[in-house]
Amino acid sequence: MRPLSLVVLAGVLLLPACSTGPTLIKVSGSVNYNQKPLGTYDGLNVIFVPVVEAGSHHDSYPADVSRTDGSFTVPGRDGLGIPPGKYKVTVNQMSFTASDETKKINDLFTLEKTQLIFDISADTSLTIDLSKSSGK
Q1: CATH of 21-129, one of 2.60.40.1120, 2.40.170.20, 2.102.10.10, 1.10.287.690
Q2: Which pLDDT does position 30 carry in this prediction?
Q3: Which of 31, 58, 82, 101 is deepest in the core (most CB within 10 A)?
Q4: C-alpha distance from residue 120 to each of 6, 21, 50, 67, 88 (Å)
Q5: 3-state DSSP helix/strand/coil percent for the chain, to nearest 5?
């Protein structure tokens, strides 16, 4: 009986260490400019960066972007989504021959300049319109 008690006790003591953390949220959507999807170019990087105090450690979460229609999903680290919170979204359009429009987009939506800020608190579908100054 004693070995069984030790196994049960060990399991109970280890249980708090197996915390699942915050509920992860599935984020998806599309990115467009003047009602045209951006994913159809040479490539598009869309990254969700948590808004945290300066100097605080944080992960960033790149989106998987479709090259056919500009749609995206944000899988998070384990493919299950991202933690709830406020996120800045950066956009970088890759092109072998960058037009003035591409350069403008890349300049406006860097981490330092982006006005794309979303409060993610539940499964979310976003339509990000970069032709509007705030992207919303």
Answers
A1: 2.60.40.1120
A2: 93
A3: 31
A4: 43, 16, 10, 25, 11
A5: 20, 35, 45
